Amino acid sequence: MINKKLLFSAACAGMLFFGVCLITLGAVVPDLKDTYGISDLEAGTLFSILPFGVLTGSFIFGPVCDRFGYKFLLSISCVCMAIGLEGIAFAPTVLVLNSCVFLFGAGGGAINGATNALVADISHTNKGANLSLLGVFFGIGALGMPFILGLLQHHFRYTVICAATGIACVVLGALYAILSFPESKQQEKKTGIKNKYLLKESFLWLIAFFLFFQSSFEAIINNWTTTYLSSRIQLEKETALFGLSLFVTGMAVMRLLLGSIFRTAKKVRLFPLLFGLIALGILCFTAGNNFPSVATGLVLMGAGLAGGFPFMLGYLGSRYPSASGTVFSIALTVALTGNILINYSTGIIVQYYGVRHVATIAGTELVFMILLYLFIIKKLKP
User: Fold this and answer.
1) 65: which of 23, 114, 278, 297 lies 20 to 30 Å off by Cα?
2) Which parts pass through the membrane (predicted)?
């Protein structure tokens, strides 16, 4: 018998570990540089490998879940994350370390997609609200891992902390292996032919490209905020990092509100509010010449972006219930592609035209998100 509350809790645990996945590498890179004697260029290679791993996991999880169910995919993904963490802790060479980082990312990407699809499948109503609550645990993982490393770094080496986290991943994988999940939705061998028709669905592509800009917006804020704050208003690195944590906190708190107080509110009414928060946040971020105003902008941007992924994935889960894994896989793959491409392009723009244009890029992305949303709303109308 399927216990939906238990499955939701297990999905939240998986999302928490995905948050840990995305933040761990950046948190331990200084230690890795000391351990392996790698240069900044080689460290940059690690940062490039991780998103490609996440992209790979996001690409494969959907068809696998729809064809074979969630149990196998989630269990194997936890093992991949565990191997990756143990490799980050104990890899004998840089080559092995690179391979482990890829496995780490692939497992995390698959868990991210599969847990979202699972929650959408077990939520017959309020899919967006439940996906928002799920997203809160991503924030907890992303904020919690640096805190744990900072708290324990004077007592344990990073290797011990990463290894212990890897063991926790194995425990989660074992839990997935014994839980009862919904049956696979596509047990026929001709599912590949049926899935080809999904590629012609304009509604799917509108949402995928909305998430393309949403994901890249989040990426440029995560990756360029510290540089922006350090150069524009001469903040110290520690203060700039605190400002970045406010962005994640704003997103996590708003997702908690969207999954509770605003649980039954119509998304059509919430999106204009969210877009308004983003616009106001960009204004504070750009015009502010002191930390309080810029910090306010970061919180507002995080809060405004909170509804993008859960609400849009909720729309997909409702429109394509028999292929939710596959459509989530397509949408998340497009989103992560945007993350990589726009982030790379931002680096070029910053190098030649200055870091102030981070806000310009963010504003441009908001315009595209609003335009795509208007087309999506038209498709939602009967």
Assistant:
1) 23
2) 46-65, 72-90, 96-119, 131-152, 158-181, 202-221, 241-258, 270-288, 294-316, 328-352, 358-377
Question: CA–CA separation, 210 vs 372, rounded Å?
Answer: 6
The enclosing domain of 58 has a CATH number of 1.20.1250.20
Contact 160, 28 (CB under 8 A): no
Half-sphere exposure of residue 358, counting CA atoms within 13 Å on the CB side? 27
The answer for 37, left when phi > 0, alpha when psi is -120 to 50, beta otherwise, is left
Same domain membership, residue 339 and residue 218: yes
Q: Which of 346, 149, 144, 343 is nearest to 245 (CA)?
A: 144
Helix axes 94-122, 70-90, angle to 10 degrees: 150
Residue 186 belongs to a domain: no
Instruction: Output the average pLDDT for the chain.
Output: 86
Q: Please indicate, yes or no, if residue 382 is contained in any of the structural domains.
A: no
User: 366 is in which domain, residue-wise?
Assistant: 195-377
Q: Is the pLDDT of residue 380 over 90?
A: no
Nearest to 78 by CA among 181, 203, 175, 215: 175
Residue 131 carries which side chain, given as an amino acid letter?
L
Unique residue bearing structure tokens 């839990």: 175
Residue among 342, 275, 362 at smallest CA distance from 311: 275
pLDDT tens across 43-97, in order? 767 777 888 899 999 999 988 888 888 999 999 999 999 999 899 889 888 889 8
DSSP string of 149-170?
Answer: HHHHTTTS-HHHHHHHHHHHHH
pLDDT digits (tens, 9 = 90+) for 285-330: 888 778 888 889 999 999 999 999 999 999 998 888 888 888 999 9
CA gap 158, 152 in Å, rounded: 9
Both 174 and 199 in one domain: the answer is no
Query: Is 90 within 8 Å of 287 (Cβ atoms)?
Result: no
Q: How far apart are CA 169 and CA 234, in angstroms?
A: 40
CB 246 within 8 A of CB 120: no
User: Does residue 187 belong to any structural domain of this protein?
Assistant: no
